Amino acid sequence: MKGARITDVYLVYDEQSQLNFGKRYEVWRKSGAVKALERELNLAMAGKNKDVPKYALPKQKREDKTANGLQRCIIDFLTIIEGWQAERINVMGRPIFGDDGKLQKWITGQGTKGSADISATINGWSVKIEVKIGTDRQRPEQKQYQADIEKAGGYYVIAKTFEGFLEWYSSIDWQRGKGGSGEQSK
Predict the structure, then answer these.
(1) Whether residue 160 has pLDDT greater than 80
(2) What pTM was computed for the model?
(3) Residues 101, 107, 108, 111, Cα dihedral to 10°
(4) With left for phi above 0 and alpha for psi between -120 and 50, is residue 181 left, alpha or beta?
(5) Which sign does the torsion angle of CA 35, 36, 38, 43 carry?
(6) What dihedral do alpha carbons 128, 131, 132, 138 form, nearest 10°?
(7) Cα separation of 83 and 91, whole Å?
């Protein structure tokens, strides 16, 4: 399929090479921050596996266009690059299926309602990171969880892009724990 690039939208040609104005695809470009993370992860991988030739190591690929991809970028940055502790939190629950394979009921998770997607400890500070992609917004339970964390002296941030998360992260003096607001502009 041929494509003519116009700013951030691709106009797609059909098989007869006729311009098809009915199909438009948004272009996602990997940010410089994600590319830098990939480079750092590749260097870390090479450093841990000194006996393996560099060409034999798998290339580390990351993206922040999905919630799972952004969570992975943030966790890898905090744990592998910075050396802090970070983990993904899952409070979704689980399905119970009958002998016929059909869903019988849903058992709710045991975690706190509204918990953030990532829980991290940075230089002794409790940090909760909620990932929101596109038009995704905080639910009331998540807003209450944010208020509880901030009241207890922890940090809560809403990460919409990896680049935005890095801006927030670098705005805080982690030795003193001062700076940074919870909401990101990006």
Answers:
(1) yes
(2) 0.75
(3) -100
(4) beta
(5) positive
(6) -30
(7) 25
Dist. CA 133–CA 136, nearest whole Å: 6
Per residue in 81-93, is it b (16+ CB within 10 Å) or e — as a string?
Answer: eeebebeebeeee
Q: Give the pLDDT confidence of 51-64 residue by residue, as tens digits.
A: 888 888 888 899 98
What is the band of 5 on the pLDDT scale with cuts at 50, 70, 90?
A: very low
Q: Phi, psi at residue 70, to the nearest 5°?
A: -65, -40
* Structural tokens at position 114: 């509204």
Mean pLDDT of the chain: 82
DSSP 178: B
23 confidence band (pLDDT: 50, 70, 90)? low
- Among 165, 181, 177, which residue's Cα sits nearest to residue 124? 177
The amino acid that residue 124 corresponds to is G
Write the pLDDT tens digit of every residue in 28-39.
678 888 998 999
* Alpha helices per DSSP H over the chain: 32-48, 67-76, 140-151, 162-170
